[in-house]
């Protein structure tokens, strides 16, 4: 298959091997390397309730009604909200935005906030990246005559809350072939649907309004899609590929400011979005001011954007300190307590900051390669976040626990979930999780497997190879970066940098050298092997990244595994 792909498209065989490893056929290869929205973007109307939502929004726009947007405080929520905020604002509509405070209001729509939006003049509120489980809040909205459109992508329950429209590719009665859309992708389809209807009725001509440039919003779609860790396949991959092209123009002041405070000099890629820009947008919702991420992405004033970006950068630094403290406590708890024979890591602590629970759960997942939950106890209840591994649908289990009466609130998707549980129900909830996750593991298995795209020599890890492999991107969840084994490399030197990262220099049997880094590994088996094997021969596995520090055109290996095979 790899040879057939490379011959069909006249490309090096190694790229054909990468595509074949991702299930791409020779017939699909050309479209895969150049994913166009014309090919992959679905008709918005294929989603249930989309046309009903479009009809109501067009009516509101034509009547110059005030619209409300209720968004989540994470990156997907901030980008979804900013996208619709910009879209409606470009149509001349008055828009009211509410992003809830994580600690005071918690996740999702709440009655008091919806009432305030109504009192401020909103007739219709669009809930983005939240709402599909907000039964009480949406019932309260209905009692005051506020019409709500839910634009979500989280796992739905068997029943749906009262709303004018619920657009969600994960509705149980939905037949969409695009269940992996992030909320920002669903929001983009909503904007496409509204824009199309306005064109059909001649509204732009009647009102002498210039139609918004929807393609210019794809940078927001790319950021939210990458950061929410939805699979980068099909339409998601096309959205991110085109969004990165829009981002490269540098026309979004908020993103330019974020790149500046992050110290990014090169063109933005999925790594920058997921590990540098995204955490800063998230920082406001975690430990700072929740609305600031959306405000930054909706702002066109470069000076104001830089000021907000600096605040977010400072909060991100504070978040790192809090996260590290909670993570150390969680690891000590997990490794100091006998664990049950279930595929679950579970840690809880009094006064843990709820804003870092998702990151801590993610770090625990990475460390133990198991689904992980972290809970903060306060006032007889615990707020928690969970992160899962490939093959285990955590969101589905959280929904089931809520329907079983074990949770006060809860929801999510396959890879991530959030919940609130009464402290006296934590043991039962933990047992329920363990049982359901074990059942999923028995059905499919989540044994760790290292899948390789090829074997390289140190001298083969070149900038030209990295540039060639980028054609198979953008990379992320569902479309992982190509992973290579480098055999019989010698560790020339190694040391610890930053917060427990291990960096080293490798040399090959036939010469050459390669920089390498193993992030957050100093206290792990991988890190200790790298630190104690100086001068020894090892096999390493990892992904290649460009090394553009100080203008250089180099390569760096991000190490994921290592084994010592020779001494001296």
Instruction: Provide the low-confidence segments as ranges.
Output: none
Report the average pLDDT across residues: 93
Count of DSSP H/I helices: 21
* Rg (C-alpha, Å): 24 Å
Tell me roughly what share of residues is in helical segments: 40-55%
The N- to C-terminal Cα distance equals: 41 Å
As a percent range, the share of strand residues is 15-25%
How many β-strand runs? 16
Short description:
Residues 453-561 form the RecJ OB domain. It comes from Pararhodospirillum photometricum DSM 122. The chain is an alpha/beta fold.
Verbal overview:
The chain has 568 residues and is an alpha/beta fold. It has four domains: 2-32, no CATH class; 44-219, inorganic pyrophosphatase (n-terminal core) (Alpha-Beta Complex); 338-444, Diaminopimelate Epimerase, Chain A, domain 1; 454-566, Beta Barrel (OB fold (Dihydrolipoamide Acetyltransferase, E2P)). The chain has 21 helices and 16 strands. The protein has helices at residues 2-9, 13-21, 29-33, 37-40, 50-62, 75-90, 111-119, 135-143, 183-200, 203-207, 218-227, 234-247, 253-261, 270-287, 292-298, 302-335, 357-368, 394-403, 426-444, 463-469, 525-532, and strands at 66-71, 95-98, 122-128, 147-151, 165-167, 345-350, 372-378, 381-387, 409-412, 416-422, 454-456, 483-497, 501-508, 511-518, 537-547, 554-566. Strands 2-1-3-4-5 form a five-stranded parallel β-sheet, sandwiched between helices. β3, α8 (135-143) and β4 form a beta-alpha-beta unit. The protein is globular, with a radius of gyration of 24 Å. Residues 342-438 form the DHHA1 domain. Residues 453-561 form the RecJ OB domain. GO terms for molecular function: 5'-3' exonuclease activity; nucleic acid binding. Belongs to the RecJ family. This is Single-stranded-DNA-specific exonuclease RecJ.
């Amino acid at each position: 298959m790899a040879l057939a792909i490379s011959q069909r498209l006249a490309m090096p065989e190694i790229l054909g091997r990468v595509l074949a490893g991702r299930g791409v056929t020779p017939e699909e290869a050309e479209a895969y390397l150049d994913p166009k929205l014309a090919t992959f973007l679905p008709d918005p109307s294929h989603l249930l309730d989309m046309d009903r939502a479009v009809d109501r929004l067009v009516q509101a726009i034509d009547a110059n009604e005030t619209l409300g947007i209720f968004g989540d405080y994470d990156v997907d929520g901030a980008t979804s909200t900013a996208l619709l905020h910009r879209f409606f604002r470009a149509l001349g509509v008055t828009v009211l935005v509410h992003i809830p405070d994580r600690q005071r209001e918690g996740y999702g729509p709440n009655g008091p906030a919806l009432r305030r939006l109504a009192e401020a003049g909103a007739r219709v509120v669009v809930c983005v990246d939240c709402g599909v489980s907000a039964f009480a809040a949406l019932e309260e909205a209905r009692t005051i005559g506020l019409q709500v459109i839910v634009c979500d992508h989280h796992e739905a329950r068997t029943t749906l809350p009262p709303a004018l429209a619920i657009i969600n590719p994960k509705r149980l009665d939905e037949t969409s072939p695009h269940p992996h859309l992030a909320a920002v992708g669903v929001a983009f389809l909503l904007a496409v649907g509204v824009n199309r209807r306005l064109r059909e009725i001649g509204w732009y001509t009647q009102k002498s309004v210039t139609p918004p440039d929807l393609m210019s919003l794809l940078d927001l779609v790319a950021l939210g899609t990458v950061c929410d860790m939805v699979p980068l396949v099909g339409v998601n991959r096309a959205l991110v590929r085109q969004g990165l092209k829009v981002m490269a123009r540098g026309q979004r002041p908020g993103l330019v400011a974020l790149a500046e405070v992050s110290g990014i000099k090169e063109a933005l890629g999925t790594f920058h979005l997921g590990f540098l820009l995204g955490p800063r947008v998230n920082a406001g919702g975690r430990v700072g001011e929740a609305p600031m991420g959306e405000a930054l992405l909706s702002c066109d004033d470069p000076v104001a954007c830089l000021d907000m970006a600096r605040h977010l950068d400072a909060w991100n630094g504070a978040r790192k300190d809090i996260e590290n403290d909670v993570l150390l406590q969680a690891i000590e708890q997990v490794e100091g307590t006998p664990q049950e024979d279930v595929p679950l890591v579970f840690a809880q602590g009094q006064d843990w900051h709820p804003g870092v629970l998702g990151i801590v759960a993610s770090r625990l997942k990475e460390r133990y390669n198991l689904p992980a939950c972290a809970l903060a106890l306060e006032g007889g209840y615990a707020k928690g976040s969970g992160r899962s591994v490939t093959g285990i649908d955590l969101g589905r289990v959280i929904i089931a626990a809520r329907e079983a009466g074990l949770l006060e609130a809860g929801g999510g998707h396959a890879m991530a979930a959030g919940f609130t549980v009464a402290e006296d129900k934590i043991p039962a909830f933990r047992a329920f999780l363990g049982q359901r996750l074990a059942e999923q593991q028995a059905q499919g298995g989540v044994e760790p497997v290292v899948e390789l795209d090829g074997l390289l020599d140190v001298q083969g890890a070149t900038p030209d190879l990295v540039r060639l492999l980028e054609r198979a991107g953008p990379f992320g969840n569902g479309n992982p970066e190509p992973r290579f084994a480098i055999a019989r490399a010698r560790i020339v030197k190694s040391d610890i940098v930053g917060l427990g990262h291990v960096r080293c220099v490798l040399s090959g049997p036939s010469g050459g050298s390669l920089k390498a880094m193993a992030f957050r590994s100093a206290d792990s088996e991988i890190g200790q092997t790298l630190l104690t094997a100086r001068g020894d021969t090892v096999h390493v596995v990892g992904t290649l990244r460009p090394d553009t520090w100080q203008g250089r055109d180099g390569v760096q290996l991000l190490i994921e595994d290592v084994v010592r095979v020779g001494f001296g």
